[in-house]
Sequence to fold (485 residues):
Amino acid sequence: MKKIQILIVEDELVIADDIKNSLENIGYRVSAVVDSGQEAINKVAELKPDLVLMDIMLRGGMDGIEASNHIRSLHGTPVIYLTSYADEEMLERAKVTEPFGYIIKPFVENELRTNIEMALYKHKIENELRNAKEKAEEATKLKDKFVSLVSHDLRSPIASVLGFAKLALKDEKHILHPDHKETFDCIIGCTSRTLTMIEELLQISRLQSGDIKLDPMFIDGHNSVAVASEEMSYLAKEKGIELKNEVPQGTRLYADLTLFGQVLINLVSNAVKFCRKGDVVTFFVPPGRKTTIAIKDTGMGMSESILKNLFKHEVKTTTVGAMGEKGTGLGMPLSHDIMKAHGGRLTAESTIGKGSVFYAELPPQKPHVLLVDDEEDFRFILKKLLRDNDLEILEAKNGEKALELLHAHDVHLIITDLIMPTMDGFELIKLIKQNKKTKSIPIIALTSDQDKETRERVMQMGGNDFVFKPLIAEDFIPRVERYLI
Fold:
């Protein structure tokens, strides 16, 4: 059986010999003994030991913690620290490198052996978990690729069948026999549902593989509900169902407009499907849950067996609607995935014969606004004007300070003066728009310069809006709310 190889990193020769003897007595093989952090890094690359025993206090410019950090990031080799010191600050530094053990000198052989065996076992389990995770991810990618390819290949011919069937129904020169018309209606219904199912499968696959990236922004929940309700208004009217939007105007949500809109459409479509003539579907914000949009209906309701599996991909829960409508069974799992991707959740409760309530809950997000102006008094005025908008305010006195804050914080809106020392607003806007991370942040420029060319220059550089000093609150606040609701 191959002996475990251990690298010793210790700058005290007597202690290093003592550790070497202890390890060999226990039955380990010492691959090398080195006395500096840089030499330890080199020997790990050369000898590839199974474990490193690392003194923390080493001679030279690199201590054991820094060396361990390099070894873990480059090679993944487990490290056990050896030290005569155990102060709080050193422990905190050491913890960041995720060591596999921490031994206080002097130690006994049994303690050394126990720490080494535990470290090697932990490292083995970590490798097995990592390999299993990589295999699972690879299998998921292959599955997603297969689903995507098959879905793409199916979509075109099915769309063609749907198109030809619709053309046949509309052909006034060759009117179909009523029996044939009924058949074509069935063809159109089946192919439409199949196309919907393919689109939902593709979206689920893209979400799971990470191909769909969220583009969150501050949106008005009332308006998003209005759009979703309008999408389903024809079908609701046809079935005699009333749609109500009781979400207050100005309900601030932070979400991907398109994807969250898809969730709302799926929810109202599902509600309408299971409602009868005279039923009501209502969107509202539950008390105390400002970032949750709920939708309740007075329809058929669902059984507990359906409800508990409603959001699972692997369980088919689709049932026939109040008027025989058929679904794909993928809309709810897709909506659940979208909410999960937002860091939120989708839940439901239902009672047979009384209806259902769905809750689309988004994580709360307070807008971060960066105010950039060299005059402290003017920044104070801006803060006073914005105090009722529930914002997190960051301040910078010039462009350089603003860039530092942008690097350290997620900012949702920048309000900047143009004329400032060190770095002016023009240079700041240019650098913000050149950076991939910050280029999408909306910018409102402030200036007392009434020159039309100044305004045009700001807009050409990528500025989103322009406000003249002195500020008029009735003009300024709506411009801010346009981006932050």
The chain has four domains: 5-107, 137-209, 216-361, 368-484.
